[in-house]
Amino acid sequence: MPTIHALLSWAENLLQNAGISSPRADAEWMLTYVLTCSRSELYLHQTQTVTHQQTTYYRELISQRAKRIPLQHLLGQTEFYGLPFYTTPDALIPRPETETLVEIVIDHLKDHANPRILDIGTGSGIIAIALAKELPKSHIIAVDISLKALRLASQNARLNNVSDRISFLQTDLLAPFAPPEHFHAIISNPPYIPSSDINTLEPEVRAHDPQIALDGGSDGLDFYRKLIPDSIPLLAQGGLIGFEIGHNQADPVTQILTQQTDLTHIFTHTDLSNHPRVVLAQKQT
């Protein structure tokens, strides 16, 4: 029977040859999943042998990862904003860059008595659920056009014990909403990849994330052009509107916002890699 050290060395080499960007880390995460242990325990017990059944299962997982199936789909779970989430091909895989938008909304609404928040294109529910955990007096409506994504989001809300403060609704963007409905924040991580760029993405993304959650039209800006003017009548005075953005989209999305006479305080925020990641504005009071 192979040792932990031998299995990790084999897996790292295989994943590296398959073009995986983080072969060692992926190999470790999958072995901790099989052995139900922590990554530190792998190093404390490198000479420990692994059973035949566990080895077979691990080799199959590594083989699937080498085919560029996302790690999160193989494990069926991931972490976002320190919280656990189920992951399936029905929604975008949560990415740490999106935490930037969550942090901004929390900072804006932390002193609000009962904030109402609208999360457009909620996917697996990560933004809505993270906000519900951090803003315990909030009520959130999370919408998506995909019923499968909403079922996953509902599972994640139950997993994180916030189902009572999030309403999930299947709809195409803002179709069912109209004044005097109002929200203290309207946020979205919309599809923003230009259509022609999708085939250039990593296999984990282009082949395993839902295309409907990626494709932002010819220049990637279709959803911003639609959502921004349609959101303003639904914002409370002083309400926040915020969007995650893609590469080189800070300026064009800012321009769309500046064309709206009811908006002020337009800012761009960078993520931890210092890339422009969120554009936001407030409705004038």
How is this structure best described in words?
The mean pLDDT is 95. The protein folds into 2 domains: 4-67; 89-283, Vaccinia Virus protein VP39 (Rossmann fold), CATH 3.40.50.150. The chain is elongated and about 70 Å long. The chain has a 7-stranded mixed β-sheet, with helices on both faces. The chain is of the alpha/beta class. Helix content is 38%, strand content 20%. Helix 8 (147-159) links the parallel strand 4 and strand 5 (166-170). The chain starts with a helix and ends with a strand. It has 11 helices and 9 strands.
Instruction: Say how many strands there are.
Output: 9
Extract low-pLDDT stretches: none
Return the CATH architecture of the largest domain.
3-Layer(aba) Sandwich
Please report the number of helical segments: 11
Multimeric state: single chain
Number of domains: 2
How would you classify the helix and strand content by structural class? alpha/beta
Which CATH class of the largest domain?
A: Alpha Beta
The averaged pLDDT comes out at 95
Q: What distance lies between the first and last C-alpha atoms, to the nearest angstrom?
A: 69 Å
The strand line-up of the biggest sheet is 5-4-3-6-7-9-8
User: Secondary-structure element order, as H and E?
Assistant: HHHHHEEHEHEHEEHHEHEE
Name the helicity range. Answer: 25-40%
Q: For this structure, what is the CATH homologous superfamily of the largest domain? A: Vaccinia Virus protein VP39
Annotated CATH topology of the largest domain: Rossmann fold
| Estimated radius of gyration | 21 Å
